[in-house]
Amino acid sequence: MTFRIPHSAFRILVAFWRLNVAEELQYRANFVASVLGTLFSMATALLTLALFFHHTTTLGGWDYWQIVVLLGVFNALTGVIEAVLRPGIGQLAGEVRSGELDLVLVKPVDAQGFVSFRRVDIWRFTDVVLGLGLAGYALFRLGHTPSLAQLAAFGLSLAAAAVVVYAIWVVLMSLAFWFVSVENIAVLFDAVYEGARYPASAYPGALRFLFVYLIPIAWTTTIPASALTGRLRPEIALVAAGVAAVAFALARALWRAALRRYSGASG
Amino acid sequence: MIKRYAALIRNAWLVDLQYRASIVLWLLWGVTEPAIALGIWWAIAGDGSVAGYARADFARYFFAVMLINQLTIAWDSRPLHPAHEAVAENIAYKARTASVILVVWLVVTVAWPAVRLPFDPGRWAVTAVAVLLAAAMRFFISFTTGLLAFWTTRATAIMDLHAGVSLFLAGRIAPLALLPPAVAGVAGMLWFRSMLAFPVDLLTGAVHGTDAIVRGLAAQLVWLGVWVGAYRLAWIRGLRRYGAVGG
Known about the structure:
The complex is a heterodimer of chains A (267) and B (247). Chain A is an all-alpha fold. Chain A is built from 12 helices and no strands. Chain A is 74% helix and 0% strand. Chain A is globular, with a radius of gyration of 20 Å. The mean pLDDT of chain A is 83. Chain B has one domain (2-246). Chain B is 77% helix and 0% strand. In chain B, helix 3 (55-72) packs antiparallel against helix 4 (83-111) and helix 5 packs parallel to helix 9 (210-246). Chains A and B meet through helix 2 and helix 9 of A and helix 2 and helix 6 of B.
């Protein structure tokens, strides 16, 4: 029998997910609670937006329904974060601290891949559906039917957004190797990601620079929403893909450096 | 009693010191929401003003929100935790985070005089009282909702619901003056204004006149009383229920 790492890693993940899903299906009440929670947070976000637009007609050059499209994208990405990233890689800081990471590292699979995708909270995927639904409704209210090119650009930039968000998590968790006491480092993500609720152009210059170039959260919601509503030319999706690739490469490099440090410390 | 408290607070302070980086992160997380709200109102106000609030007024308002929110936050009051220890932990945490915000605010006032507060020791003293009342109330609200864990496994969902409503009614996302009048009225009738908006408006000077100040403080006292009552009721009923299940 030939033993190929990528293939076996995939089989392991599928096995993990199957167990995971079976476990979650026992708690169907969680599904209802999760949907209600999402609807409530969407309602608060819409009310907040309504309050802002009670006093203005545009925000950073975006009108109300355009920002609702963006909120839909924000919600869809939140679903990915809560379903995959937080239950998986989000646990890492605590494991570095407790030493449980050793149990991951001895497994014959790529540690980053394993840590990232070992666990899924399937109910939170409903956030993705609800978010995209909200974006669709807002498009309808705008009377804007996206062209095929716009839809493709949206799909690509949304995938790029997921990669950027993932890279930010990897960077944060890698930092936990140096600052062992910050078990709550995930709150740093929550703090920054809050900024993605509104278009980058709504913020003062310094903050906008930060969001576009340093902590690239502008690429997570502003760009996909822009592609979908036709605010930017579809080619922007290629730039988004480039940003995602760079972010991923940097995060992977930092992760490797962090792991070398961890092995050094325990060995 | 005071000596015991001093020892507990000192202890909590020392425990906190070990987790300095963590505390910085919690602080950052706590100020993000008002900072983003400020950024948005900043953009909306532009060079003009919104319902009488210009950029500097928004800056002053949200700096006060950050400060008073840190001072009144009911941090992690677990239901079965001995109350006094929880209070001491609370005070140590607040002293630390609030002093950071105060220092930042002072630094900002040097560069940007518009966010300075008028020098008014009398107002500051009244604000201190209002902050104490608000902190006590938030503590009992959090304790009471925590006690709901005796009855439901989703006590945190109820806390989230309360937090979501207070986003608007307590003045976290905007000064109450910017809400539709009916909504602001509801906030004034319930406990939400007493939790945060009232002490903030006191500090920035948006509430003036002895009459308004006395009425605000009276509302705080009444709602504090209501929440203490709710807490005692929940505690007694909850213990009885817990005993019944266990025994």
